[in-house]
Amino acid sequence: MDRTLQVDGIYTDKMVVPENKSFKISGRAISNTIVSAKVLDRVFITNTNDDGLWTIKISALPEKTVADIELKNLDETLTLKDIKTGKVILLTGQSNIEFKFRDDAEYQEQIDHLNLQNVYFYNVPQLEYQDNEITLPKGLTTSKWEIADKDTLWEMSDIGYWIAKELSKLDPDEVVGIIDCYKGGTSISSWVPEEVLQSSQELIGRYVEPFKEATTGKTQIDYDREFADYNALVEKHNTDLAKFQKENPEVSLSDAKDKVGHTPWPPPMTPTSYLRPNGLFHTMIEQVSNYSFNKVVWYQGENDADNPDVYAIMLRGLVSSWRKLFADQSLPFYIVQLPGYYDEPQDAWAIIRQHQLEITQTLNDVHLVSIADTGEKHNIHPTHKRIAGTRIGKILSDKSYNSTPYIYRKQIVGNQLILFVASVSALVQRGKAEMEVRKAGKWSTQEVSAVGNVIVISNAQDIEKIRYAYANYPKCTLFNEFGAPLAPFEMEIE
Known about the structure:
The chain is an alpha+beta fold.
């Protein structure tokens, strides 16, 4: 007999809920009946609606709680076992945070010497599309909370592993719950609700209207033809690349791609494509809409290099719309400022980094984690994630600064421009510290000096604008005492 009382997919045995913070459990049962949840001898009650949906809010549990949660509806009982309180982190974005630990260059060495305690993770199923007739991808499997060990870590986010390792190192007794919710190759436009893209005519013109144009009035034969043409381009690219590498074995893969070109992307748009505007907000983020988190890590931007100028509008909309969805207006967000990568339109990633920086300076409890000193010039998916993940973990631990260094104030003193840096005690230089300065509309490079938590730029008269590490593949030379880089930036000087 099928069970009537059900919980949403993320609620399984071994799940981690935030300590000292209320949380919710949701699911389905018989319509217009009572559902109760019993935990630590306390009972919480709610009613199902006409569709049988229910959500129970459970008061905050104390630190280091381990308990079962018993759910009841009429004569049915469902028990969630071995529930723990701890630090719950939602990791979300595109391919570089999706990149699996099994593909890390250090994977086998880490597995052979694994020393990870009290870490659990849940991979949100990558649902691409669903309606009354079809679910894509077909055969999508369910997920469950797993303890992070030698048998399960291969399917965990690589960045997530290094975050968890650092958190476990800094506090071995703390339970860590990592929720992986990501999809590679995606624009931020796929991760926001409709009202964000409808908020400006610019966004409608960039995303909404092209989607309608690509998917209106077409038959399946039309889509099949478009995919056949696309696959032919991919096959030709792969053949040309293999031929070039065979004829030029001394040339690196990145240089070969410079000659032959990169793999064609994106594929043709269809009504069911996971790349469609707003798609993943509904199919993935809404899967965890009733869960509670301590912090959200957003690592994305690579796929918006063709529209970098509007990234800030969408990122602001993402933060506000997710806080609304999660019913948590003070939920902390940690924005990962993109690493270095050369093969994009000029300054595209630099512009996105600037937007990522500015959002953290204008929205409450939104923090920056710059990894601009990492990355590979011609490889968008580096296999070394230790530095990035460890840095994010240190900041999430609340045992260090709550962001990487950034300029928070500027002041003109005589003919000097003084920049004040947050999240640092004493700046450390690695090589010559330089910035670009613009005077009379012309850019030039000028050496700067760092003293404590300030940067001094001499001969500052008539400076209109300054830049630091403002390039797709930047050179970072200023760091805090923990090795975190000063965030690349561009700044007007009044």
